[in-house]
C-alpha cells in the first residue's frame, strides 16, 4: 500500500476517522454517565453524544448577519482537521505504530493548539461580545497550559534520547519502542512529576470544570460557540471528541503503552481501558468535585504547579541521565 493510500486510510478509518470518532463519543458518554452517578443523578444514556450529534446535523446552521461568514465556517473545520491528523500520530502498542517516524511530538504540540485557535477564530468571527470575551479567555488559557505540556514532552524526549545514547528523540514511535523494551516511563520515579503535570494539563486542554472559563455558561453563555448551531456546532463537538482521544492517547503512549500480548482486539480494548481510567481521574472526578476558577487563578495554577512538576522531572532527567 502506498504512503498516500495508507494516510487516507489512517485519516478516515483507523486510528483516525471513524474509529477515533466512535471512541471519543463513547468516552464522552461514559464521562457524562459517571459524572451523573457521582452527583447522585441517573444521567443520560451512554449513547447520548451520538444522538446529540445526529440531531445537530439535521438542524440549520444559522450565521449571524454581522459575522464574517468565511471565518465562521472555517473555524470548526480547522479544529476538526487538525485533530484528525493528530490522531494518526498516536501509536497504539501492539496495534498501530503511528504514521510518521520522526518529529511526532513537535507536530503534536502544534496540532493540539488548533482546537483553541479554532475556538478563537469562531468566537471573533461571530461578532458576538460574548464570543470576543471567550476569545481572550481561550488565548490566556492556552498560554498557561501549553507551557507544562512543552516541558513534559521535552522531558520524555530527553529521557529516551539520553538512555539510548543520543541527546533527545522527538519520535513518539521511538519513545514507545523504548518503553516496550525497558518498561513504562510511568514506573520511573524521575518521570512521576511529569506524569502528574500531564494529568493536570488534560482538564485545562479539554476545557472542563474548573477550567471551562472560556465557555462559562453563567457568565458568557458558551462564549466562542454561542452563535454556532447545526452542522457548525456538530463539528465543534466532533473536534472535542477527537481531542479527547488525542490527549488521552498521548498520555498512554508517553507513560504506559505496554500491550497485553499479541491480540489486536485485546490490545485495542486495553488501550480503551487505559484511556477510560485516565479520563475518569483527570476529567470526570475533577469536574464533579470542583467549582470554576477565575481566569487569574487558572493562569497562576498552571504556571506554579504543573509547570513546576514538569521542571522537576526535567532537572532530574538531566542530572541523572
From TrEMBL:
Q: How would you describe this protein's topology in the membrane?
A: Multi-pass membrane protein
Q: Which UniProt keywords apply?
A: Membrane, Transmembrane, Transmembrane helix
* Location(s), subcellular: Membrane
- Record's keyword annotation contains Nucleotide-binding: no
Instruction: Please name the Pfam families in this protein's record.
Output: NADHdh
The residues that cross the membrane are 6-30, 77-99, 105-126, 147-172, 234-256, 268-289, 301-320
The cellular component terms of Gene Ontology attached to this UniProt record, alphabetical and capped at eight, are:
plasma membrane
Keyword Transmembrane (UniProt)? yes
Against PROSITE patterns, the record matches this protein to: COMPLEX1_ND1_2 (PS00668)
Q: Which domain of life is it from?
A: Bacteria
Matching InterPro entries, A to Z? Answer: ComplexI_Subunit1, NADH_UbQ_OxRdtase_su1/FPO, NADH_UbQ_OxRdtase_su1_CS
Q: What is its main location?
A: membrane
Q: What is this protein called?
A: Hydrogenase
Species? Calderihabitans maritimus
Q: What is the lineage of its organism?
A: Bacteria, Bacillati, Bacillota, Clostridia, Neomoorellales
Amino acid at each position: 500500500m502506498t504512503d498516500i493510500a495508507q494516510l487516507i486510510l489512517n485519516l478516515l478509518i483507523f486510528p483516525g476517522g471513524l474509529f477515533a470518532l466512535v471512541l471519543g463519543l463513547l468516552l464522552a458518554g461514559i464521562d457524562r454517565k459517571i459524572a451523573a452517578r457521582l452527583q447522585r443523578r441517573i444521567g443520560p444514556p451512554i449513547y447520548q453524544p451520538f444522538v446529540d450529534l445526529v440531531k445537530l446535523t439535521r438542524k440549520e446552521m444559522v450565521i449571524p448577519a454581522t459575522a464574517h461568514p468565511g471565518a465562521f465556517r472555517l473555524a470548526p473545520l480547522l479544529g476538526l482537521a487538525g485533530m484528525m491528523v493528530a490522531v494518526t500520530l498516536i501509536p497504539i502498542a501492539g496495534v498501530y505504530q503511528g504514521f510518521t517516524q520522526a518529529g511526532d511530538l513537535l507536530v503534536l504540540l502544534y496540532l493540539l493548539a488548533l482546537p483553541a485557535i479554532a475556538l478563537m477564530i469562531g468566537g471573533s468571527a461571530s461578532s458576538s461580545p460574548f464570543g470576543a470575551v471567550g476569545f481572550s479567555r481561550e488565548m490566556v488559557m492556552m498560554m498557561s497550559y501549553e507551557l507544562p505540556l512543552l516541558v513534559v514532552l521535552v522531558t520524555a524526549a530527553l529521557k529516551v534520547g539520553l538512555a539510548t545514547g543520543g541527546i533527545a528523540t522527538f519520535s513518539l514511535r521511538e519513545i514507545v519502542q523504548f518503553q516496550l523494551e525497558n518498561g513504562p516511563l510511568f514506573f520511573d520515579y524521575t518521570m512521576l512529576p511529569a506524569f502528574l503535570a500531564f494529568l493536570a494539563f488534560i482538564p485545562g486542554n479539554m476545557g472542563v470544570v474548573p477550567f471551562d472559563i472560556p465557555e462559562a455558561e453563567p457568565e458568557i453563555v458558551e462564549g466562542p460557540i454561542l452563535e454556532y448551531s447545526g452542522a457548525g456546532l456538530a463539528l465543534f463537538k466532533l473536534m472535542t471528541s477527537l481531542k479527547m482521544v488525542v490527549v488521552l492517547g498521548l498520555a498512554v503512549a508517553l507513560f504506559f503503552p505496554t500491550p497485553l500480548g499479541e491480540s489486536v482486539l485485546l490490545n485495542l480494548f486495553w488501550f480503551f481501558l487505559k484511556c477510560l481510567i485516565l479520563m475518569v481521574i483527570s476529567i470526570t472526578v475533577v469536574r464533579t468535585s470542583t467549582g470554576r476558577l477565575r481566569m487569574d487563578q487558572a493562569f497562576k495554577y498552571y504556571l506554579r504547579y504543573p509547570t513546576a512538576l514538569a521542571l522537576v522531572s526535567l532537572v532530574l532527567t538531566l542530572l541523572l541521565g
